[in-house]
């Protein structure tokens, strides 16, 4: 059960794992984690974007075709500016909308570039994919779907006017909130870490993969006062269904509300991860919205007091547009045949014929934005357009490290679902039908997965491209330059049936109290050594006793709570006196006294006592 929670994200890992070469010694351990943090200029700002007049709602095709004229929750846009002028400052904007079309992003990016000198690669707008927000233009062909049929008639004039007026106001507000964040910049401490939230469920396959990671970026004044927290979670904003005809922001707006209520004066920003195939579970009621919002806020609170990794430099952004091929562009005869289809496919064929009739061509590719922000060479934030399915997150984290990657979907443009090779092959809504809703001629060609992952790889900081050990292999540990010894998991042997090296975390999944990790170290100098252990554990499994022994000497210590299986922590376990020469270490649970999962273990470090 624990193992499922821990591993469910990566259940596809084996199929997707790349061929890594084992290169001992190339891997840098995060010594910098304990270095003194330095400040980064940061500014946060928030703006209400709740429509001030009745407007059609976005998100579900099966909705009333009248305008929503009341508000369940206010919705907002937030901005986070990082870096001083002259440091290529960046702007991260989150917005409570079903999607952000590139034409709006472009207007904001052009404005920031022209007026503030901000590089377009340093601007990201991330939509929350709430299905309770207003329409901002025809992202998805749902406005023509009325009472179970598709219609060619224009929207009622008042509805058209409201959508266009709202879109214009929204664009101005996004510019305003960005400028406010830039103007608010002052020295701050920035740190990041990740936990988990567990309400996302794969909506295509029961028990299928989801990314339960909950990364946060914490922004505080130098005195520690919380100023802002940027949070990411991979789950659709679909807790409430199409029968809710009031403007709302779903679990995202509720999480904003709870976090900000618990931390007065702080601004919460939330973006979605690769949530294309993840729905909240349970869903359907306002209580569910409150429950999910609280789960996010509770886990954010745990992380705010966890051992986070300081980020001592503002992000450096790189961006690339790539062309994603559709599997097929139907010719006129095929489109004519498709019009007989009474579903969205037939309606989309009529739209395509209209394009042809106007002298336009049906595009065979989609221009797609990929962005990577390098935070101090410690964390890379990948911003992908569209409704990205979970396989991308799994693959990127597999290739570049779950411990150092943050993936935002719905970023800068939401042109359609971004299915993976697997999902394209399987078909269904995310793989095929949704493409017609999004006005695309066909499903994507399967190679789009490699094109996107390769583009992200090209933009990735070079330190992240070092090949990662795919398996653990015992080797004699030698002294580090600082005199310490790093008993890392990938250089350990194992005993026990269930212990498993997790390459994406560079750690052991320790699934059974009978499991052991074994190291051989060449200790050059006899003496006392402090023992530090880097591990993660769920709150439920925390508190177990483990031992590190050699010969008949034994050090005993207990695990503290870290917050989640994804939240690693370094703890001093005690002090050992070591002899010179080759020493065989055995790490395990206190024998016979413990059962179940003990921890996920990344490393034991032996530091000579001066
Ligand atoms: Zn969606």
Structural class: alpha+beta
Low-confidence stretches: 1-34
Largest sheet: 9 strands, mixed
Roughly how much helix do the residues carry, as a percent range? 10-25%
Q: What amount of the residues lies in strands?
A: 25-35%
How many domains is the backbone divided into? 2
Average residue pLDDT: 92
The N- and C-terminal alpha carbons lie at a distance of 44 Å
Task: Note down, in words, how this protein is organized.
The chain folds into two domains: 38-326 and 364-463, no CATH class; 476-608, Jelly Rolls. The protein has twelve helices and 31 strands. The two termini are 44 Å apart. The site of zinc ion (ZN) has 3 residues, from loops.
Which terms would index this structure?
610 residues; alpha+beta; Jelly Rolls; nine-stranded mixed beta sheet; six-stranded mixed beta sheet; 12 helices; 30% strand; disordered N terminus; binds zinc ion
Summarize the structure.
By secondary structure, the chain is of the alpha+beta class. It is 24% helix and 30% strand. The chain folds into 2 domains: 38-326 and 364-463, no CATH class; 476-608, Jelly Rolls, CATH 2.60.120.
List the helices and strands and how they pair.
Elements: H1 2-7, H2 13-16, E1 40-48, E2 76-82, E3 90-95, H3 102-116, E4 123-127, E5 145-146, E6 149-150, H4 157-183, E7 186-196, E8 200-202, E9 213-220, E10 226-233, H5 250-262, E11 267-272, E12 278-280, H6 286-304, E13 309-310, E14 316-325, H7 332-338, H8 344-357, E15 365-375, E16 379-384, E17 387-388, H9 390-400, E18 405-408, E19 417-418, H10 421-426, H11 428-437, H12 448-459, E20 476-477, E21 485-488, E22 493-495, E23 500-502, E24 507-509, E25 516-523, E26 527-536, E27 545-550, E28 553-558, E29 569-578, E30 581-589, E31 600-608
Parallel strand pairs: 3-4, 10-11, 16-18, 17-19, 20-25
Antiparallel strand pairs: 1-2, 1-7, 2-3, 5-6, 7-9, 7-13, 8-12, 9-10, 14-15, 15-16, 21-31, 22-25, 23-24, 24-31, 25-30, 26-29, 26-31, 27-28, 27-30
Helix pairs in contact: 3-4, 5-6, 7-8, 9-12
The structure holds zinc ion.
